[in-house]
């Protein structure tokens, strides 16, 4: 039996349109909170393969999604390149010493040396593969990375930012230094994704969550070209593994920068009309998305949106998802409702 999610990524026929949710393993689930408490904190949870595997599987059983996404975080990569990282309660990730100079970049571990430090991620994947195979329900496992640009925003700013002023100052006044950072991260990410594939993930997704921070004329240069390079490296070596690209917030220039590249699925954010994405990209890529995550607060609003997306995509070249991550205060029963509705309205 083949996995419905993998089939959909490769545009093969499926009995219904598969569905998963970005950030599906997380704080809206009381079961997740219990395991995080047991781990002590978020990073300990990422470092503990048995517990990370447990929370990866939770949404399969509780919410009924068709694919599991590896439980980890995009920021383990710069962390293992040598940047000390903490997740502060209520504030999010903080790097103790942001990258400011060429010497700071040179001091970071690169390539194999950094990728080899992420053994706890590969161990989690191996454990998950065993557990998913034993279940026999053919749910796929998605591996992931942050895009080099999105990772660089945290490395340069030291934390989440609303203005991106420190990295944009670098973009315009010292682009060579920004490229040096992006190049070093790209080389680690290529090997990191390759090792995730070798450990057993079925599909990989590249999250460019902060794509919209870059002005359209600079997007290719500072983000998309690096993402495409990673995708092409992986597709050349592992053509059977689908690659999903998720550049969030670029609907204004979706067709310009994004009609090339060797990958399989394009993640559509909630600000992009699905009909427009279909018209511009639907012949080339399977589209994933794109319900506005806050619709999950209301079941009727959810059903309406799911029906609307279905009427556009009609079960062809589509994967249901949210247009960004689920928020922590969404009732679990509403998430279950979303998943059931996607599976119901698309049933062939
Ligand atoms: O308190 C907690 O338990 C930590 C909350 C949390 C969780 C559950 C963080 C902190 N990361 C995660 C897990 C996570 N992060 C996953 C797991 C799998 C799943 O989706 O279920 C994934 C794929 C990520 C990816 C991630 N981390 C992204 C890209 C996706 C997106 O949502 O745009 C980003 C930007 C991060 C950074 C991050 N991690 C955590 C926080 C609070 C942040 C900062 C977000 C910000 O700057 O606004």
Summarize the structure.
With 348 residues, this protein is an alpha/beta fold. Helices cover 51% and strands 11% of the residues.
What does this structure look like?
The protein is of the alpha/beta class. The chain has a single domain, classed as TIM Barrel (Alpha-Beta Barrel). 51% of the residues lie in helices and 11% in strands. The strands form two sheets. A seven-stranded parallel sheet has the order 1-4-5-6-7-8-9. A two-stranded antiparallel sheet has the order 2-3. Helix 4 crosses helix 8 and helix 9 crosses helix 11. The protein is globular, with a radius of gyration of 19 Å. The protein starts with a helix and ends with a helix. The model has no long low-confidence stretch (mean pLDDT 97). Coproporphyrinogen I binds next to strand 3 and strand 4.
């Amino acid at each position: 039996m083949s996995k419905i999610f993998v089939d959909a990524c490769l545009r093969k026929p499926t009995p219904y349109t598969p569905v998963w949710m970005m950030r599906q393993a997380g704080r809206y689930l009381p079961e997740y909170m219990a395991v995080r408490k047991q781990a002590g904190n978020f990073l300990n949870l990422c470092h503990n393969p048995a517990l990370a595997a447990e929370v990866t599987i939770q949404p399969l059983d509780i919410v009924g999604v068709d694919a599991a996404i590896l439980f980890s975080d995009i920021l383990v990569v710069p962390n293992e390149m040598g940047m000390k990282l903490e997740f502060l309660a209520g504030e999010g990730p903080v790097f103790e010493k942001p990258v400011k100079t060429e010497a700071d970049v040179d001091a970071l571990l690169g390539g194999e040396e950094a990728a080899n430090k992420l053994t706890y991620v590969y161990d989690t994947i191996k454990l998950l593969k065993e557990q998913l195979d034993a279940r026999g329900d053919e749910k796929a496992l998605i591996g992931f990375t942050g895009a080099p640009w999105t990772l660089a925003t945290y490395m340069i700013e030291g934390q989440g930012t609303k203005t991106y002023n420190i990295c944009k100052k670098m973009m315009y006044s010292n682009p060579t230094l920004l490229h040096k950072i992006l190049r070093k991260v790209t080389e680690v990410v290529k090997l990191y994704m390759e090792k995730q594939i070798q450990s057993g993930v079925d599909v990989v997704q590249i999250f460019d969550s902060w794509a919209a921070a870059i002005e359209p004329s600079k997007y290719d240069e500072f983000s998309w070209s690096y993402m495409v390079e990673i995708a092409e490296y992986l597709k050349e070596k592992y053509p059977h593994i689908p690659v999903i690209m998720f550049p969030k917030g670029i609907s204004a220039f979706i067709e310009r920068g994004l009609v090339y590249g060797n990958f399989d699925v394009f993640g559509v954010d909630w600000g992009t009309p699905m009909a427009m994405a279909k018209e511009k990209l639907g012949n080339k890529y399977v589209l994933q998305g794109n319900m506005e995550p806050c619709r999950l607060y209301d079941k009727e609003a959810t059903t309406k949106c799911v029906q609307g997306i279905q009427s556009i995509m009609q079960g062809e070249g589509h994967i249901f998802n949210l247009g960004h991550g689920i928020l922590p205060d969404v009732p679990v029963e509403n998430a279950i409702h979303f998943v059931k509705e996607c599976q119901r309205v698309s049933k062939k």
